[in-house]
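EI: anyone free to look at a 61-residue chain?
SC: sure, send it
EI:
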Amino acid sequence: MTRLRRIIAPGAADRSVLVERMDRRDANGMPPLASTRVDQAGVELVAEWIGGLAGCGAAAP
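SC: here you go
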């Protein structure tokens, strides 16, 4: 079964494009300019926040 990816997938940071883009330093990373290192604490904070959205009522496929 293919799991759909979303910008923010409530309760599923591993399927959230936002976390993926924050955790990379190439042309597809966020922010795209003026940064050469991943803000690991920031990535973990956003992933934790997304994980806490599991009960927000949004349907996640």
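EI: The chain has one domain: 13-55.
SC: 👍
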